[in-house]
């Protein structure tokens, strides 16, 4: 791609038994889903993992049958590892019943590129799918889809040159059932394709008159492609009057800015007929408001996303992203808020890089 573009769209026609694309197939009677690499072989090759207790006995995992249900014992890691050059194209996950928090905030997803010891993606699995809430909220976007009842999908293209490894860690007190699927292709990656990163952060509460940090300063040549936020309002009234700020390539006093509801694609407090109106669209959305009724009541939570696919944010040297938490006082003056903000910053860099903010302890992650 030209002009320093780092959004990695890999264009190569692949075929499997004469069918273009990649294939996922369910085999009866096991209700099993496997992920296959595109090769001309007699049977599709399932992606297996270690340290798991599959629903189907291990001796049945012969390349034609495989269960994708795994019981995550507290602290267990599931390390599927892929060798070679290619790209992850699609990831899907859902919980096996129980409290939604056991999936959305109590399973930590990590992705490692090219044999690196540090993850380039590290965040609660629900936040990774823009679904941090403790309930169902439909998302119909290009990068992420959340479908009934709790099927979470992401379609970020994630290139790798030597291989990749995905782990899931259970930080709950109880065992968790997780169903998941990873689709990837083995092929030549463009020289300009960047490595996918996802940085999670949370501040509760945001200190008075302080900006919330979505992304601490990262260094390198890359492209910022998305923001997911879960905004917990700790006071009554409107909360989204602040500005989001992109400090690119040494910007200091004069960042690139946009208002909160403007940035997430809405206007006028997301209100219709005196109440918040949830929405989901290809690039922007506020798919969930809890509780939904009573526009200016306190203690609401808002799930928001913005994908910079058609309008990417490029940077040559470094990038830092912040947002203000500001509402209105009764006399029309600005009110700095002490809200509960959490976020995921999605971006590509020219090489795998350590994340800037380490994941905090479980008590600072969970939603109560």
Please outline the helices and strands.
Blueprint (H helix, E strand, L loop, with lengths): L14 E2 L2 E2 L3 E4 L4 E4 L33 E4 L8 E3 L2 E10 L5 H4 L2 E7 L7 E4 H4 L10 E2 L3 E4 L3 E4 L3 E3 L2 E8 L5 E11 L8 E9 L8 E8 L2 E11 L10 E6 L7 E4 H4 L7 E2 L2 E2 L2 E2 L3 E7 L10 E7 L5 E3 L2 E6 L2 E3 L5 E3 L3 E10 L19
Parallel strand pairs: 9-16
Antiparallel strand pairs: 1-2, 3-4, 5-15, 6-14, 7-12, 7-13, 7-15, 8-9, 8-14, 10-11, 11-12, 16-30, 17-27, 18-25, 18-26, 18-30, 19-20, 19-27, 21-22, 23-24, 24-25, 28-29
Q: Give me the count of strands.
A: 30
Supply the number of helical segments.
3
Helical content stands at under 10%
- Beta content comes to 35-45%
**Outline:** globular
Low-confidence sequence ranges: 1-67
Question: How much is the average pLDDT?
Answer: 79
Write down the Rg.
21 Å
Main pleated-sheet profile: 11 strands, mixed
Cα distance spanning the termini: 45 Å
Structural class, by secondary structure, is mainly beta
Task: Please describe what this structure looks like.
- By secondary structure, this protein is mostly beta strands.
- It is 3% helix and 42% strand.
- The protein contains three helices and 30 strands.
- The chain has helices at residues 101-104, 125-128, 260-263; strands spanning 15-16, 19-20, 24-27, 32-35, 69-72, 81-83, 86-95, 107-113, 121-124, 139-140, 144-147, 151-154, 158-160, 163-170, 176-186, 195-203, 212-219, 222-232, 243-248, 256-259, 271-272, 275-276, 279-280, 284-290, 301-307, 313-315, 318-323, 326-328, 334-336, 340-349.
- Strands 6, 8, 9, 14, 16, 18, 23, 24, 25, 26 and 30 form an eleven-stranded mixed beta sheet that branches. Strands 5, 7, 10, 11, 12, 13 and 15 form a seven-stranded antiparallel beta sheet that branches. It has a four-stranded antiparallel beta sheet with strand order 17-27-19-20.
- The radius of gyration is 21 Å and the shape is globular.
- The relative contact order is 0.19.
- The model is unreliable at 1-67 (pLDDT under 50).
């Amino acid at each position: 791609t030209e002009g320093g573009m780092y959004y990695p769209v890999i264009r190569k026609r692949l075929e499997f038994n004469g069918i273009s694309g990649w294939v996922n197939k369910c085999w009866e009677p096991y209700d099993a889903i496997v992920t296959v690499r595109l090769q001309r072989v007699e049977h599709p090759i399932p992606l297996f993992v270690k340290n798991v207790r599959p629903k189907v006995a291990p001796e049945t995992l012969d390349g034609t049958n495989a269960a994708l249900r795994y019981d995550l014992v507290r602290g267990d890691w599931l390390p599927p590892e892929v060798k070679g050059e290619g790209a992850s194209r699609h990831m899907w996950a859902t919980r096996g019943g129980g409290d939604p928090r056991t999936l959305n905030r109590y399973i930590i997803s990590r992705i490692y590129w090219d044999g690196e010891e540090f993850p380039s993606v590290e965040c609660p699995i629900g936040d990774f799918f823009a679904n941090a809430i403790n309930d169902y909220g439909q998302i119909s976007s290009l990068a992420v889809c959340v479908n009934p009842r709790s099927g979470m999908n992401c379609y970020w293209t994630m290139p790798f040159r030597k291989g990749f490894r995905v782990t899931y860690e259970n930080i709950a007190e109880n065992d968790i059932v997780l169903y998941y699927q990873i689709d990837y292709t083995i092929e030549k990656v463009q020289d300009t394709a960047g490595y996918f990163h996802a940085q999670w952060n949370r501040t509760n509460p945001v200190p008075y008159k302080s900006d919330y940090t979505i992304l601490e300063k990262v260094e390198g040549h890359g492209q910022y492609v998305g923001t997911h936020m879960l905004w917990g309002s700790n006071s009554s009234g409107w909360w989204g009057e602040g500005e989001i700020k992109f400090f690119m390539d040494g910007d200091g006093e004069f960042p690139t800015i946009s208002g909160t509801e403007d940035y997430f694609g809405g206007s006028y407090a997301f209100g219709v007929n005196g109440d918040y109106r949830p929405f989901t669209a290809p690039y922007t959305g506020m798919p969930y408001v809890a509780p939904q009724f009573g526009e200016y009541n306190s203690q609401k939570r808002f799930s928001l996303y913005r994908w910079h696919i058609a309008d990417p944010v490029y940077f040559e040297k470094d990038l830092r992203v912040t947002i203000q938490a500001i509402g209105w006082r009764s006399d029309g003056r600005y009110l700095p808020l002490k809200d509960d903000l959490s976020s995921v910053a999605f971006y590509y860099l020219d090489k795998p890089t350590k994340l800037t903010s380490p994941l905090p302890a479980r008590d600072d992650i969970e939603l109560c």
